[in-house]
């Protein structure tokens, strides 16, 4: 069998498999999403003609599933908090506007850890409630909201692909490929652009509505988005606090995502360099010997792929050890290969 | 060749390789650390007799390399900031003690985004400086300090292994294995214990030194470690601010690491479940057909490992495609395997 045929088999393995084995349902669905490009995926991205990166689609679908509950959790969390602090509003001191709005604003300022201090709890109960609220808020922000933000960025990416296609007059496939290999870079660029827009919006708002001078407006924006929140400048009008509820939530999460994507980008870049180094390194007769697992003086496609992926650090020893244990059990006749004979013998 | 021999070859592949190919130095070092357990690693962990998880050792070594520069960056960053804000101390208003200490305290409160607001900049220059300082501080904290914290946790783990060995009278190998498979869990437990100790230390300190009542001390601790920093309660004495410089830095980083390890733990747990599902799933004759890449009606060890790792989602299509391209180029005679003949022919 020629190497072309082997390659075809190797690449389509996952898809073939999803046809022949329809029993393990969950497993199969996972595999299809991760491995190949199923028909459903093509349909869902029908407006793009070409399907996006399967891994990306998998992540998007997973994020989509998680998006609605996230909104629900956020609403429940903010709702409960607002109600509690509204009922305890006489135990909160500071610059006040309307009871309910202040409670909501206090919740957002607390959960994002901005903590201006323009409203502070002044009873034991309110203080302990605020402590509880900020810890749960951190968990919600770190573990759940970041996923929702990621989902939005993934969605934006689809529009970005379309925009680039139009502007650069490139084929869709080219742009998609570029997007796949430099995924984190584009995510970072998207989030940083959104962040800049949010910064500008905040500064303009504080300048015109809260009547701060330009430097103070910018200073307050920086102090808020980083969750520093000195509190010497903050939102003190009813309209300002209404705006703040949405703006603080989105801008603080956006900045956190920027940093997360920057880290991803850095990691991905390093991995890509390593992979490139491994792939461009000359394959010598010595490598041939080392990669030849079954000692038949020939390196099969599977052996080669395994050898190179190990070199890239994508596979580690623990994984291989665990799989090899299973292999040994299945290899009934100890021949070093699994054949139909192994199945027949094991069932005797 | 029996499957035992194949397994021996498969598992020792990386080590063998580091003996035969001594040219590509950097690559080799990477490979040795990731793949096998070299002699140097055993020596370095000599006091434990058994080497720890190679991956962990690799990470520890890398972290160790990064640890000294991190301390240097932190010192340089805090030093520059302290000097700037000390020189501009007349542009900072609030509760003051000693000029230099206040500047350092202000730097720490700003870079960790606690932002009590007990000291705030009150000139344009000082405000813009604070904005710059908090952004760079976030980057330093997120991208660099977390690595240093991880290094410390890795070090602690070694002591934990020893402690468990003594207490539970278990063999070192057993404990190490447990530690490897549930790495994130132990990291999380270690960081959360450290965090609790830091919380108690802070509360006790505020109670005795800053003379806050118990609830206020606890409230101030919660407000600080979460970087909320309302600022109604903060450190106002010279001794308090000296303590705060170290305590705020360590406790905020520690809490952030707790959340990071919790996320890792969750991810690792999900991956482990998936791997277990893939490994325990019955391998049917249909799988045999799908895993048989070269169509010889027999699944070799390499084919089996590749098939299972793909199923686990540890390898994706892009990786395989990239490696297969190289394979095709090397397979000069298009036989579907690499042999010495391919090398001879390619050099003619």
Automatic annotation (TrEMBL), chains A, B:
Keywords: Calcium, Ion channel, Ion transport, Membrane, Transmembrane, Transmembrane helix, Transport. GO terms for cellular component: plant-type vacuole membrane; plasma membrane. The keyword Cell inner membrane does not apply. The keyword Nucleotide-binding does not apply. Residues 1-51 are annotated as: Disordered. It is a multi-pass membrane protein. Pfam families: Ion_trans_2. One of its GO terms (molecular function) is calcium ion binding. GO terms for biological process: stabilization of membrane potential. Residues 13-28 have a biased composition (Basic and acidic residues). It comes from the Eukaryota. Residues 318-348 form the EF-hand domain. It is found in: Membrane. Its main location: membrane. The chain crosses the membrane at residues 70-88, 125-145, 188-209, 243-262. Belongs to the two pore domain potassium channel (TC 1.A.1.7) family. This is EF-hand domain-containing protein. It comes from Vicia faba (Broad bean). The lineage of its organism: Eukaryota, Viridiplantae, Streptophyta, Embryophyta, Tracheophyta.
């Amino acid at each position: 069998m020629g190497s072309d045929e082997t390659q075809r088999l190797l690449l389509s393995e996952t898809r073939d498999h999803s046809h022949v084995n329809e029993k393990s349902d969950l497993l199969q669905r996972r595999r299809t999403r991760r491995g190949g490009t199923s028909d459903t995926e093509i349909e869902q991205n029908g407006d793009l003609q070409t399907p996006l990166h399967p891994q990306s689609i998998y992540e998007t679908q997973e994020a989509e599933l998680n998006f609605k509950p996230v909104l629900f959790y956020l609403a429940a969390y903010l709702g409960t908090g607002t109600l509690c602090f509204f009922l305890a509003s006489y135990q909160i001191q500071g610059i006040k506007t309307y009871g309910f709005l202040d409670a909501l604003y206090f919740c957002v300022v607390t959960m994002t850890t901005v903590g201006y201090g323009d409203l502070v709890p002044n009873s034991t109960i309110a203080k302990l409630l605020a402590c509880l609220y900020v810890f749960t808020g951190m968990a919600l922000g770190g573990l759940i909201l970041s996923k929702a933000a990621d989902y939005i960025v993934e969605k934006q990416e689809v529009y970005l692909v379309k925009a680039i296609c139009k502007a650069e007059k490139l084929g869709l496939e080219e742009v998609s490929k570029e997007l796949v290999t430099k995924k984190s870079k584009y995510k970072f660029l998207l989030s940083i652009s959104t962040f800049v827009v949010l910064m500008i919006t905040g500064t303009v708002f504080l300048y015109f509505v809260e009547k701060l001078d330009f430097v103070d407006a910018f200073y307050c924006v920086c102090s808020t988005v980083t969750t520093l929140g000195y509190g010497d400048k903050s939102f003190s009008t009813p309209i300002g606090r209404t705006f703040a509820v949405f703006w603080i939530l989105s801008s603080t999460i956006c900045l956190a995502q920027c940093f997360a994507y920057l880290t991803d980008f850095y990691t991905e870049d390093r991995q890509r360099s390593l992979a490139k180094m491994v792939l461009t390194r000359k394959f010598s007769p010595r490598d041939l010997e080392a990669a030849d697992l079954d000692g038949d003086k020939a390196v099969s496609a599977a052996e080669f792929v395994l050898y190179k992926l190990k070199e890239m650090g994508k596979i580690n020893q623990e994984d291989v050890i665990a799989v090899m244990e299973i292999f040994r059990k299945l290899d009934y006749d100890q021949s070093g290969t699994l054949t139909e004979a192994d199945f027949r013998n094991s069932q005797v």
